[in-house]
Write a structure and sequence with these properties.
Layout (H helix, E strand, L loop, with lengths): L1 E5 L2 E4 L4 E8 L6 E8 L5 E7 L5 E3 L7 E6 L4 E6 L8 E9 L6 E4 L3 E6 L1
Parallel strand pairs: 2-11
Antiparallel strand pairs: 1-3, 3-8, 4-5, 4-9, 5-6, 7-8, 9-10, 9-11
Length: 118
């Protein structure tokens, strides 16, 4: 499956962005889509992930500010990010992982850059 992210950009602290990820190709029913990010000089950090029953999981530190959703008709995954902070700066990727296994992505796109200035 090919994943293509978009929607990143530069915003001021407190602003919002909506990221999109279009998936093309076959995704097995045992795999779910999610988002992770990587800040400069840091390791990967799980952000949000879909569950097989359509429920969602958001990383504790992002709960209340980030929302993940999926439009199956459009094969598109979204990440709504509100009240952005400078520490949210980084490259954001969407990926596929075994449903129910958090953050273990086996495939991901090229990423989209998010820069938050204070």
């Amino acid at each position: 499956v090919q994943l293509v992210e978009s929607g990143g950009g530069s915003v001021q602290s407190g602003g919002s962005l909506r990221l999109s990820c279009v998936a093309s190709g076959y995704i097995a029913s045992t795999y779910c889509l999610g988002w992770f990010r990587q800040a400069p000089g840091k390791g990967r950090e799980g952000v949000a992930q879909m569950n097989s029953d359509g429920t969602t999981f958001i990383a504790d530190s992002l709960e209340g500010r980030f929302t993940i959703s999926q439009d199956n008709a459009k094969n598109t995954l979204y990440l709504q990010m509100n009240s952005l902070k400078s520490e949210d700066t980084g490259m954001y990727y969407c990926g596929t992982a075994v449903c129910g296994v958090l953050w273990k992505y086996n495939n991901w796109g090229q990423g989209t850059q998010v820069t938050v200035s204070s």
